[in-house]
Write a structure and sequence with these properties.
Layout lengths: L4 E7 L32 E5 L8 H4 L2 E3 L19 E5 L3 E5 L5 E5 L5 E5 L30 E8 L5 E4 L6 H8 L17 E7 L2 E7 L14 H5 L7 E7 L8 H15 L1 H4 L3 E6 L11 H9 L5 E4 L8 H13 L14 H4 L8 E4 L6 E5 L1 H8 L6 H13 L2 H7 L7 E4 L2 E4 L3
Parallel strand pairs: 1-3, 2-4, 9-11, 9-12, 12-13, 13-14, 16-17
Antiparallel strand pairs: 1-8, 2-7, 5-6, 5-8, 10-11, 15-16, 17-18
EC number: 3.6.5.-
Subcellular location: Cytoplasm
Enzyme class: hydrolase
Length: 429
Amino acid sequence: MFADRAKIYIRSGKGGDGHVSFRRELFVPDGGPDGGDGGNGGDVIFEVDEGLNTLTDYRHKRKYAAQDGQEGGKRNCHGKSGESIVLKVPEGTVIKDAESGKVIADMSGENRRQIILKGGRGGIGNQHFATSTMQAPKYAKPGQPCQELEVMLELKVIADVGLVGFPNVGKSTLLSRVTNAQPKIANYHFTTLSPNLGVVDLDGDGFVIADIPGLIEGASEGVGLGLDFLRHIERTKVIIHMVDAASVEGRDPIADIHAINKELNAYNPEIAARPQVIAANKIDAIWDKENDPVEKIRKEFEPEGIKVFPISAVTGQGLKELMYHVKGLLDTMDHKPVVFEQEFFPEDMFVRENLPYTVEKSTEEENTYVVEGPRIEKMLGYTNLESEKGFAFFQRFLKDTGILEELEAAGIQEGDTVRMYGLSFTYYK
């Protein structure tokens, strides 16, 4: 089974907590603080592996986590940093936020390795909080939390040209004739169950062509296999429509082209607007020379600027002209590969040092002001307010962050109450 899509959960490592300890040695009964810093948590890194061509590995294992940093120790011992986890993916893999569908990273082009989630920084030990007036601080900073995210991995093949058409029109045969690819070929529908890539060599210069598995009507809405493979055409610059000009199975080639264009437009209008070429295949099976179906296709589409090439994938007739025309179209276009721009930035979800807070006057209690937000909640989580020195440390935090200024701007007076989650205290200058 060709796996080109997988949803996984990833988590970076938590930073190790800073340590609280004091130097205790013979003849040094009142040594200073010597708590060490915690280690940094490991990162989650994605890396391109040239030897991979599917996302099969991520179908069997869904959760990936980097190591947490170790807590700091006594005697200024620094905790060990957690190891990062490196996830190998095939080139062309697009990493998206599973909830919003926005692109986090496109592992193609020059982007071979990218950190997706950063590990938390280790907290600092109590030795860093010692001052001339506070020589025995009994608190340390905890490590920063981990980052976690559910992501969708989508493999979008990297090819210059996309070969599309209904099942059994001869796409695999064409690919085998013009490239070094060896796709499975048989006379039944849906022989191709995964995109096949091949390189067309034209006098030392060429391009990559992808055989996109057979589309059917309703593919853009998830009918059949179409939706599973439409994503593989997103990077292509030119589209070759292949039709059965001889109507061997009774299909109308003109109706087929309109149907596929409808599906492309429904999936992504930008793709449908790209340059197109029509390969009218199986001309070796046309017996009615008076009613030439190729001429009917030309009258329908060449006025729109879409060139029609009569070909026979079996005998090779017309293939050279078709390939050189496609190469000419590519030569007029930007040679840079199609790369999806980043739309989702995980670091914005995990702002650490500048967490928000709000300062508001209570509408329910008189002379009361409410201060809330992740930054306050985090600070309360690692400060011992029952300690006189811990409370003094918290007061400095309120001053340094500008919260006291905002309270005064909001009109607070001496004797008013300040409420922060479960904590209440009276305000005095």
